Amino acid sequence: MAAIRAIREVLVKGLVFGEGQARIRGADKEIEELAESIRRHGMLEPIVVCPSARDPQKLEVLMGQRRVQAHRILGRRTILAAIIDRPVDLTTARVLSLTENLLRVDLDTRDIIDGCTTLYRKYGSARMVAEETGLPYNTVRKHVKYDRLTTELQEMVDSGEVVLDVALKVQDVADTDVPLEPDEVKLLAREMSEMTAAQRRTVIKAKQESPETPVESLLKEHASPKKKVKQIIVTLSPDEHQALQAYAKQRKVTQDKAAHILISDALELMLEEKLSA
Fold first, then answer.
1. What would the pLDDT profile of 152-178 be if each residue is shown by its tens digit?
2. 47 CB-contact burial (10 Å; exposed 0-12 / middle 13-18 / buried 19+)
3. What is the pTM of this model?
C-alpha cells in the first residue's frame, strides 16, 4: 500500500497534473480568490503528490490542483506537499481527486460524470463507487447513466442547457416504441427544464401511454399546470442562500425559479424512493 514518505516544500515547476485529476473543466474558476486567500493567510494544508509514472523527474498532483494553480498566479517557487512513496494507479488517483474536489467546490457536471464512470467501470457497482468517494449512492447511480443519453441530450448536458436529471427523464420518453426526432428531443428537454416535477411526470406518462402523439401536441396538452399553486416562505442560512444563488446563475433563472426546481426535484426523488421501498 502506498504511504506518505515525507512532507516538505517542492518546486512548483516540477509538478504535473495527471489523467486522474477529476477537476478538468472550469479549473480556473475562483483561482484568483484562492490565490488572494493564500497570499493573506497562507495555505491551510499540504497538497498530495506522488512520483509521475510518465516522467520520473516530476511529481504528479493527486490532491490540490487549484492550490498549485494559485501558487503559480502568486509566482511562488515552492509549495508544501505530502509525498506518496510511489506512483498510484489511475483509479486511485481519480478517487483521491474526485473526493477532494467534492469537499471544496462544485465540480462541473461532466467532470463528476467522467469520474464516476471511470470508477464504475473499475468496480462494476455504483454502491462501491459511492463508498470509495463518499458521494451519495443515488448521485453516483444518476451520473453513470450519462452514457445512455442520445448525442443531442449529451451535448445539452455538456453545455449546461439542461441538467442531467431532466436529460435522463427525456431519455425515458425517447425510449418508447416510437422514436423521437432529434429536434423533438431538444424541444422536450428545453420545455421539461422549465416544468415542475409533477408536470414532468404527467408528460412522461402521457407520452408512454400515447407514443405516437407528436411532442409539440403533447406539450400543449399537458405542460400547463392544472392546479392552483401554493406560496411558501423558506428561511435559508447564508451558505444555503449562496448555494441557491450559484444554482440560479448556473441555470440562468431567477432565485424563485431555482428554489422551485430544487424543491420539486427533491420531492420527486422522495416520492420515487418511497414507491420503490
1. 999 999 888 898 999 999 998 888 777
2. buried
3. 0.55
